[in-house]
Amino acid sequence: MKSTYLLIQPKSIKSGVFIFSVLTIVSMAALMYTGEPLVTKQTPRGIISYELAGNTAKTNMILDSWKPSQKMFAAFNLGLDYLYLIAYSHLIALLCIIVGITLSQKWEKVANRLTGLIMLAALLDATENFGLLMNLFGSQNDLWPGLANWCAVLKFTFVGLGILYVLSGSIILLYRKIKG
User: Fold this and answer.
1) Which pLDDT tens digit goes with each residue over 14-53?
2) What is the mean pLDDT of residues 48-64?
3) CA 160, CA 65: separation in Å to the nearest integer?
4) What is the pLDDT of residues 153-180, one digit of tens each?
5) Which of the four pLDDT bands, split at 50, 70 and 90, describes residue 6?
6) Three-class SS of the chain
7) How confident is the model over 86-112, as a mean pLDDT?
8) What CA–CA distance (Å, rounded) separates 126 from 57?
9) How far apart are CA 42 and CA 50, in angstroms?
């Protein structure tokens, strides 16, 4: 089964890359801005420290260390991440398709599989955000920190694979172009 991205016309793919690039850059900048107040002694990596807390005790330690204003930044950051996950996932998926189509049928098959993993990463990101918001709003259910942690780890893995694929393919394409 082919990726639905393979059904998109090449001109539309280029437009999609442009639109999702802009959305990704703008939302990433906003996430960095709203995430800056979340960097503390207990959360040296800001919101990522919270995403990877993994258990209720560590999550509560993080939430207890944040002032009410920081919790507001965290809530806004997590809400904004829903826009970001749509933007980055579609951008990476489209770039995978471009690389795959340009290189070979084998690369295209890998791109087809990767687009599915990238969309799964977006779903995992949304689930992670929900769990983090549940804790932020006071839930003490042990399910949420562990779920958020696992979703984050898988999300980072799948997104990393997509980015690695695009970079590897781009290097090969650049080498071919230079070589003639």
Assistant:
1) 899 999 999 999 999 999 999 999 999 999 999 999 999 9
2) 96
3) 30
4) 999 999 999 999 999 999 999 999 999 8
5) low
6) CCCHHHHCCHHHHHHHHHHHHHHHHHHHHHHHHHHHHHCCCCCCCCHHHHHCCCCHHHHHHHHHHCCHHHHHHHHHHHHHHHHHHHHHHHHHHHHHHHHHHHHCHHHHHHHHHHHHHHHHHHHHHHHHHHHHHHHHCCCCCCHHHHHHHHHHHHHHHHHHHHHHHHHHHHHHHHHHHHHC
7) 95
8) 23
9) 9
User: How far from 81 is each of 6, 30, 76, 135, 152, CA to CA, in Å?
Assistant: 27, 9, 8, 16, 13
- What's phi and psi for 139, nearest 5 deg? -65, 140
The token duo for 175 is 């080498």
